[in-house]
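Structure in, sequence out. Go:
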């Protein structure tokens, strides 16, 4: 009996195999529960993160609509912290930085947005525009080229590429991009205008005129096109065509007196001074006492002074009224000074021209005229004016004459060293002028260079052994 009870108890207790099996299942269930708990937590966190991300985006958009750019940047930055892979958040923050003119930060965000979504076009458009605003036209062109690899059918992007290439000096590339623009959008006046600018920059005047005329046909009221046409015609001496374009511009823009002035000056350049005066008279009726009109009227009368007896007095009268205003330009003051010089009023001319060389933008002619009227009484001021004139002009027809005047003024100022420098330059430019050779030799002798003076005289006498001035100077030096 006892033996059977022990055996039954043994049979009733779980086996090790069963215990191991049960534990495995329990652990598996526990692991599944833990995984489910972690998964649920992660899912909740992901949902919560997404909700926070979208909330911050909305807050940024709202702040931006209210003009609160700093708050918008904070919100978009928070969204990026939650979703660093968000192209949209980088794009919107970049656009906000651009509104604040923080272009470097904007460019970083736009570039990051483009890297996050290489198929998106908006980041590339925005990045190129930032580069264009910074006048990094070459970089802008490169981005537009990348943008076109995503979409080759955008006439707008081709046009922007053409503009960037034009601004960077790549005229051939700009022409090629403009042809692509016109292939996609043939009736596009801005593209023809740009094409005309490119052709003009390449010296292809006839093709430039054709492009500008096409733009004017498509957009008759596009003033810049007609201004370019007028300027191009003027450079080619086609004054009738120039005048036609200026008259169209004046009719399109009646509110600006500058248009009527441009028409009158075109008449004057074409030799129709009387018609120029009539045009300016009409302008004065609409805008009485306008200094710009009086300045132009004075210019026209001054140009007629050699052929009409009363023209000079009329020029002085008109220019005096134009110059009496506080904002009179250096150009107007120079014209007034020129008229006074012509009327043999040197003292008054000197006072006016002194003002002309002190006003901006400077008219280089003011310095030349001021030197002329101040040379007798104030040689130092005259010399400085002549030197300043040379620094302002890109080229001059009589450098030798100006250099000689500077050298001789330097001798008057007892500055023979400076005189030698300028007279030598003048003598090189005008080698046959023996009077210059004599002045140079005198300056060298006064500067203590006796041997140099004698060598200069000897060189001059080789050209003309009978030159009296050189012979006398040689005798005096020896």
């Amino acid at each position: 009996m006892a033996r059977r009870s022990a055996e039954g108890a043994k049979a009733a207790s779980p086996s090790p195999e069963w215990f191991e099996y049960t534990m495995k299942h329990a652990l598996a269930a526990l692991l599944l529960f833990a995984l489910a708990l972690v998964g649920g937590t992660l899912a909740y966190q992901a949902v919560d993160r997404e909700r926070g991300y979208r909330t911050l985006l909305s807050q940024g958009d709202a702040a931006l609509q209210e003009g609160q750019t700093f708050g918008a940047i904070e919100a978009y930055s928070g969204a990026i912290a939650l979703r660093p892979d968000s192209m949209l958040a980088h794009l919107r923050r970049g656009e906000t930085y651009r509104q604040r003119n923080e272009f470097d930060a904007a460019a970083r965000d736009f570039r990051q947005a483009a890297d996050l979504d290489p198929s998106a076009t908006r980041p590339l458009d925005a990045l190129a525009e930032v580069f264009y605003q910074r006048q990094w036209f070459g970089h802008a062109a490169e981005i537009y080229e990348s943008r076109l690899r995503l979409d080759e059918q955008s006439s707008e992007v081709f046009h922007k590429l053409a503009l960037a290439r034009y601004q960077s000096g790549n005229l051939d590339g700009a022409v090629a991009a403009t042809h692509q623009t016109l292939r996609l959008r043939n009736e596009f006046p801005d593209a023809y205008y740009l094409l005309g600018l490119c052709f003009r920059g390449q010296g292809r005047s006839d093709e430039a005129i054709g492009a500008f005329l096409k733009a004017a046909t498509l957009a008759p009221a596009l003033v810049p096109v007609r201004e370019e046409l007028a300027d191009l015609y003027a450079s080619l001496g086609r004054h009738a065509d120039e005048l036609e374009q200026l008259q169209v511009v004046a009719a399109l823009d009646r509110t600006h007196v500058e248009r009527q002035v441009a028409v009158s000056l075109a008449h004057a350049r074409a030799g129709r001074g009387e018609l120029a005066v009539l045009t300016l008279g009409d302008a004065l009726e609409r805008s009485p006492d306008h200094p710009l009109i009086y300045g132009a009227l004075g210019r026209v009368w001054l140009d007629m002074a050699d052929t009409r007896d009363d023209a000079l007095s009329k020029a002085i009268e008109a220019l005096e009224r134009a110059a009496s205003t506080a904002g009179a330009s250096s150009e107007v003051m120079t014209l007034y000074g020129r008229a006074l010089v012509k009327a043999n009023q040197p003292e008054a001319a000197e006072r006016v021209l002194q003002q002309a060389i002190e006003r901006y933008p400077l008219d280089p002619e003011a310095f030349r005229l001021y030197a002329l009227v101040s040379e007798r009484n104030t040689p130092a001021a005259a010399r400085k004016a002549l030197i300043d004139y040379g620094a302002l002009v890109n080229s001059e027809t009589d450098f030798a004459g100006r250099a000689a005047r500077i050298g001789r003024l330097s001798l008057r100022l007892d500055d023979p060293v400076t005189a030698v420098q300028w007279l030598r330059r003048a003598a090189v430019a005008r080698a046959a002028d023996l009077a210059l050779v004599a002045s140079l030799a005198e300056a060298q002798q006064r500067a203590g260079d006796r041997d140099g003076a004698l060598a200069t005289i000897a060189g001059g006498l080789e050209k003309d052994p009978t030159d009296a001035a050189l012979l006398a100077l040689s005798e005096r030096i020896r």
